[in-house]
Write a structure and sequence with these properties.
Elements (H helix, E strand, L loop, with lengths): L1 H19 L2 E9 L10 E6 L5 E6 L5 E7 L2 E8 L6 E7 L4 E9 L2 H7 L9 E4 L2 E5 L11 H6 L4 E3 L5 E3 L2 E2 L2 E4 L2 E2 L5 H7 L5 E10 L1 H6 L6 E9 L6 E10 L5 E11 L2 E10 L6 H6 L37 E15 L4 E25 L5 E28 L2 E25 L5 E27 L6 E26 L5 E29 L4 E22 L6 E2 L5 E20 L2 E18 L4 E21 L2 E12 L3 H4 L10 E3 L8 E14 L4 E13 L1 E8 L5 E8 L2 E14 L4 E18 L2 E19 L3 E16 L8 E15 L3 E12 L9 E14 L5 E8 L8 E5 L3 E6 L6 E13 L8
Parallel strand pairs: 1-7, 13-16, 33-37, 36-39
Antiparallel strand pairs: 1-4, 2-3, 2-5, 5-6, 8-9, 9-15, 10-11, 11-12, 13-14, 15-16, 17-18, 17-48, 18-19, 19-20, 20-21, 21-22, 21-47, 22-23, 23-24, 24-25, 25-26, 26-27, 27-28, 27-29, 29-30, 30-31, 31-32, 32-34, 34-35, 35-38, 36-37, 38-39, 39-40, 40-41, 41-42, 42-43, 43-44, 44-45, 45-48, 46-47
Length: 925
């Protein structure tokens, strides 16, 4: 025992001695002009051998800093402060160093530039305020590499095979070039077509919301943003691409674009055609071009208070979940600033024509409260076409240094056609027919939308005092026509046909809506720590809906009064809000309340009846943010909001395509109120390239609007809505990511879960459904200039329970494995292969394993001196194992679906990328 104790003491003493021998550095940062201490200066210690950041800190109120527990070696110390020239000093420390740098005097940049020109090598990675800056030339990439390849070399940044970028664990949604949009802010366009050798710096930061940027009140909304700073000779240039891929038969993916950027001018045209599921690369980049975003004043026909952002990237885009597509698109983009940047204009035009043919089948089981089981199956052939044009634009005018007038507008016209032929049948659990249905629908329609926003905002001389005024007009018109024929057969308990019901309906629908809204918002900084925001807005909506249904079986095509309605809606809403924010050092707390008072009137012009309602919606919110240090943040938030029942839920148009399904409204519905709580933690240590993220959310809804169904013995359903309590959800996630720059490795792991509890009424019996999902995901990435490799395994366990009973055990498990590798070959050739392995083991509901292995590969070669021309041979689904299939296991419901898909194919591709600069390369300073 004595011997063991002596060994333990000796070991502990050795560890403590080794720890005690770590070096420390301290100092005080001061201003040489005013002799003041510079608080919050950024202090970075960078290893000289590989430019990896080892330690970082900020000075305290007295300008003091200290770096502890440092290993021996050669380092560079970088200290930065706004408007001051960077302080750079070489240091060599030993294990026992205890360095006191004393007062470190910082010079104004203007003073330094007047006296002397300094030539210095910039650090590979440094902090500038809250912005992480990477010096592009410090990271080696192959010749003619694009910005995507450069980003892969930067610590803490990941780029997947689709071009999606993650920085510090968060998805990057905005990429700017020299602080401005580069033909929009879509990350793919700038990173794919700009060359890495044109980049001077990569800047990564959290961009605040437009509201927070104007008012100074943190609303907790941040968008991870990358800004690409180009070298002087690369700021004016051109880019063009032609991408042609074909199987020399019936499949193809073709696209092209050309653009120029010169000072503030950016202009581009593009076009694409594709009949592949993987949409055109050009369309993927260019469809996100848009006009200016603005916060819509939205109250809605139902009186609910909603705020969302206009100009959504995909608002003109319709993605089919399956089927055989045939898509065409074209457009143009223009943006420029003039009059010394006081004025700016942005215009974007799009035209698209998307067609989809899809054959779907469905098989499902459902358990009813009386333990009756229905087995349903269906088959539908759909042919849909959606086409349209849109134009968006923004005009900016800086009336003075602190005021700006912004006029945004959008206009679009969409057309659609649809033909579907299908049928379904229901059997009892002993296999006897209960009902059969066959249906054919043909229809077409069109809609026109105009919306806009006029905004004037001003920042006053007093810091934190702002005023913003918005006026928003909107107009919508829609028209549609449809023919629907249906044949329904009903069977008795012996399986004999007892009744046949035929319908032949012709429908004609017209709708219109006009609205005007206005919002005034004012903020003021009451003290160093307190900020106040208040606002008022109103919106009035006048809309109408006229739906006519005719019986084609009758000789005179008689109008069916019970299915026809002519409604007019009038809505007037007043919204007031008040928010307070308290800030102290790294802590901020904002709390407030938004109240919406809505008067709502519904006029039934056919029955000459009026229906009026008045609502008061209260929406509290609280956001707490604690910035533990420059790399760690903790946030807590609460939001409460009301949701009013919709017009269709209150007094719906009775819609019937098949006699087996009808909807009836409930005018007694009350608004629901949802409480949402959230807790999140983020940590990113860029010196060790380590990221940790965690969040936990919980929400519950009082008076939730839930569905109620009456299902008879023929599986005929009458659906309506009621209020009920019991809807709630809970979710959480933990993510960890770690990079090893010397080994070119990065790995990560995600663990998450979510559980939802929902209430529904089936045949007057309450059904409590609980669905839970557990997720596990890992990732391993290796990258050099010659080899790229990634492995992403994932697993998901889903369980479903139902209070009225369960089909089997309501449990299913899936696991997937994504493996991809790219090798650079001689003669500028490249080989890529990827495997997508999916495993869905048999369970109590489905007795057969469902496993697939999708293997894709391509071989490409780049030609010309600049490698601008690429020839590619690609094979998709080499093993021909792709299937159009989904299945679901719930509590009292299970289902499986199939859809059309494109099987194995081979493409020959020709891609030509041309980019260059109008300015010849200048000599480096």
């Amino acid at each position: 025992m004595l011997k063991k104790t002596f060994i333990f003491i000796l070991f502990t003493f050795s560890v403590l001695t080794a720890w005690a021998q770590k070096a420390n550095i301290r100092g005080v940062v001061t201003d040489t002009v005013e002799k003041r201490k510079l608080e919050y200066s950024a202090v970075l210690l960078i290893r000289s051998s590989d430019s990896v950041m080892v330690k970082t800190t900020r000075t305290d109120r007295n300008g003091k800093f200290e770096l502890k527990n440092l290993s021996a070696g050669d380092y560079k110390m970088l200290i930065s402060y706004p408007k001051m020239a960077d302080y750079i000093r070489n240091l060599r420390i030993s294990d026992t160093s205890n360095i006191d740098l004393g007062n470190i005097n910082m010079e104004l940049k203007s003073k330094v530039l007047k006296e002397v020109v300094i030539q210095a090598t910039k650090s590979a990675v440094r902090m500038r305020g809250d912005t992480l800056v990477f010096q592009a030339d410090s990271f080696a990439v192959r010749a003619n590499a694009n910005v995507q390849e450069l980003l892969k070399r930067l610590p803490g940044i990941e780029v997947d095979k689709s071009g999606t970028i993650k920085a510090q664990g968060k998805t990057v949604k905005t990429v700017l070039v020299d602080g401005d949009e580069f033909f929009g802010d879509d990350p793919l366009l700038a990173t794919k077509y700009l060359k890495a050798n044109a980049v001077e710096e990569i800047q990564v930061y959290d961009k605040k919301s437009k509201s927070a940027d104007l008012t100074g009140i943190d609303d907790g909304i941040k968008n991870k943003t990358i800004n690409i700073k180009l070298k002087d000779n690369a700021k004016n240039g051109y880019l063009a691409t032609i991408d042609l891929n074909t199987n020399v038969s019936d499949l193809g993916d073709y696209g092209g674009m050309a653009g120029i950027f010169k000072n503030k001018l950016k202009a581009a045209i593009y076009g694409n055609y594709s009949n592949l599921n993987n949409e055109s690369k050009i369309n993927n980049s260019m469809r996100k071009l848009k006009g200016e975003e603005y916060d819509l004043i939205e109250v809605g026909d139902d009186g609910s208070s909603i705020m969302y952002v206009s100009g959504d990237d995909d608002e003109d885009y319709i993605a089919a979940s399956g089927g055989l597509p045939n898509n065409f698109g074209m457009g143009a983009y223009y943006a420029d600033k003039f009059s010394k940047d006081k004025m700016g204009l942005k215009l974007n035009f799009k035209s698209f024509d998307n067609n989809n043919v899809n054959l779907t089948t469905t098989n499902s089981q459902e358990l009813l409260p009386n333990e009756t089981k229905f087995f349903s199956s269906g088959r539908t052939a759909n042919n849909t076409n959606v086409a349209g044009e849109s134009v968006k634009g923004t005009f900016n005018y800086n009336t003075d240094a602190k005021s700006i007038l912004k006029i945004s507008f959008g206009a679009s016209r969409n057309r659609n056609e649809n033909t579907s032929v299908g049928g379904n049948e229901t059997r009892s659990d002993n296999g006897i027919f209960i009902s059969q249905n066959k249906q054919e629908n043909t229809g077409n329609g069109n809609s026109d939308i105009f919306n806009g926003n006029i905004n004037w905002s001003r920042k006053f001389e007093k810091n934190g005092r702002t005023l913003s005024i918005d006026v928003q007009p909107e107009s919508q018109n829609s028209r549609s026509a449809e023919n629907s024929t249906n044949r329904t057969v009903y069977f008795n308990a012996s399986g004999d046909s007892i009744r046949v019901e035929n319908t032949d309906l012709r429908k004609k629908n017209t709708g219109k809506q006009n609205s005007i809204g206005m919002r005034v918002n004012y903020t003021d900084r009451l003290s160093k720590r307190w900020t106040f925001e208040t606002g008022y807005s109103f919106k009035t909506i006048s809309s109408g809906s006229n739906r006519l249904v005719f019986d084609n079986i009758a000789n005179n095509a008689k109008k069916i009064d019970s299915l026809s309605n002519n409604f007019k809606f009038i809505n007037f809403s007043n919204v007031g809000k008040m928010i307070w924010q308290y800030s102290y050092e790294n802590f901020s707390l904002s709390s407030g309340l938004e109240a919406t008072q809505t008067n709502f009137e519904l006029k039934d012009l056919d029955k000459q009846t009026d229906f009026e309602r008045s609502y008061l919606n209260l929406s509290p919110r609280t956001n707490l943010l604690y910035k533990i240090n420059n790399s760690n943040t903790l946030a807590v938030n609460y939001n409460g909001y009301m949701q009013q029942p919709s017009i269709d839920q209150l007094q719906p148009v009775r819609q019937i395509n098949t006699p087996l399904y009808q909807v009836i409204g409930n005018s007694a519905l009350r608004p629901s109120f949802t409480n949402s709580f959230g807790l999140s933690y983020n940590s990113f240590q860029f010196n060790s390239d380590q990221y940790i993220s965690a969040y936990f959310n919980y929400g519950f809804t009082n008076n939730a609007i839930v569905s109620t169904e009456l299902v008879d013995d023929f599986n005929k359903r009458i659906s309506s809505f009621i209020n009920a309590n019991g809807n709630n959800s809970i979710s959480g996630n933990l993510s960890y990511s770690k990079g090893f720059s010397k080994s070119h490795l990065r790995f990560g792991i995600d663990v998450g879960f979510n559980r939802s509890n929902t209430i529904a009424i089936i045949n007057a019996t309450q059904n409590k459904a609980a669905n839970t999902q557990y997720n596990l995901r890992g990732s391993l990435n290796y990258y050099t200039q010659q080899i790229e490799f990634s492995y992403i395994p994932s697993a998901s366990l889903m369980t479903g329970k139902s209070s009225i009973g369960e089909i089997n055990d309501g449990r299913s498990l899936t696991h997937n494995h994504e493996i991809s590798g790219t090798v650079q070959l001689p003669f500028k050739a490249e080989f890529n292969t990827s495997f997508s392995l999916s495993f869905r083991p048999a369970n109590a509901s489905f007795g057969q394993d469902l496993n697939t292995a999708i293997w894709n590969s391509y071989l490409s070669a780049k030609l010309l001196k600049s490698e601008a021309l690429e020839i590619k041979l690609s094979v998709t689904d080499i093993l021909n194992q792709k299937i159009g299939y989904n299945r679901f296991v719930g509590g009292n419901v299970t289902s499986e679906d199939t859809f059309s898909y494109i099987p194995r194919y081979v493409l020959i591709g020709l891609n030509w990328n041309l980019s260059g600069n109008f300015i010849k390369k200048t000599t480096d300073r």
